[in-house]
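Take a look at the protein record below and tell me what you see:
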Amino acid sequence: MDNQLPLDLILNIIDQIPSSIAKFRDLKLQGSSFFQKTGESELHREIITGGNKSFIQIPSNFRLEISREGFHKVIRAFCRHYSPFESGRTSSTSDEEFWPKCMDKRHLLECLHFSLVRERNHLKVTKNCTKPMPTAKELEKAGIRFESGEWDISEVKFSGKVLKIPAVVLDQKLEIVGRNLIAFERSNCRETEWPMTRFLQLMNELIDDSTDARVLVKFGVLRWGGSKRERFINNLREDVGYPAVHSAYPAIDEALKEMKEYYWKRSGFIARNLPFLLVVSSLAMAGLALTVMRVMKKKG
C-alpha cells in the first residue's frame, strides 16, 4: 500500500522521456570533445559515445509508444491483468469510454479499485436483510441458478430465478490483490463504499463447504487457479468475515434482497406443504407400481 507510485509522477516521467532522448543523442553526436571540456571520466565517454564498453544503446528509430494522452490504455491493461474477475469479452464502446475516467486517480491501485464497479449506484445506507443468506447448494435446491458475469461487481443482479455474479478465479493473485484492495477500502473509503469487501463477504456466505464450491464451479461463477481450496476459503474468511448490520456496499444487498425474498417464500411453501407433497408423491409411486404389475401379469 505504501509503495504506490503517483500517476502524476509516472506521467511527468513519460513527458520528459522524448526530450531526454534528444539530449542524449545530441551528447553522443558531440562525442568525446564534450567530455574533454567538462573533464568527465573515460567511463562516461564510453557510455555516451558508444565505444566498445558502451551499455546504453538507443536505436536511431526508437519511438516511445506511451504518451500522456494514451496512458489510459496502460491503465486498462494493468486493471485487466490484476482484476479479480475473469473477462472473456473484447473491448466495447462503453469500455473505451470508461478507462479515460481513471486518469484523475492517484495511483494504479486506486484505478483498479475504481474499475471494480463500472455502474455506480449511489444508494442510501440500509440495514442488511434480516433473513440469512442461503448457501449455493441451498439456492440450487430452491430452483435458483447462477450465471457468470464478465466485468465487475455491478453485475451482481437477480432476475428470473437467476443470480448473476462476476466470475472470479480463486488463486494466489487474488489473495495478494484482494488484500491490497481491502486495505485500500478500509483506509480510503467510507464504510458503505467497500465493494470488494462486500463481494468477498458474499462469496463467504455462498460457500460453506466443498459442495457449495462445486455448485459455483459448475455454473462457471467460481474458477480455481491452483490454490488449495480449503486454505484459500479459510484465509478469505479471516480477511473479510461476514456482513455486519450495515452493508459495506448497499448496491449488492439491494440486488440480493429480491433473491432472498424469493428463496424464503419458496422454502416456506415447501415446509408448509411437505406432508401433502410426500403423500401425493407416495400415491403416485404406488399407482405407477400397480400399473407395472398389471402389465407384467398380462404379459405373463
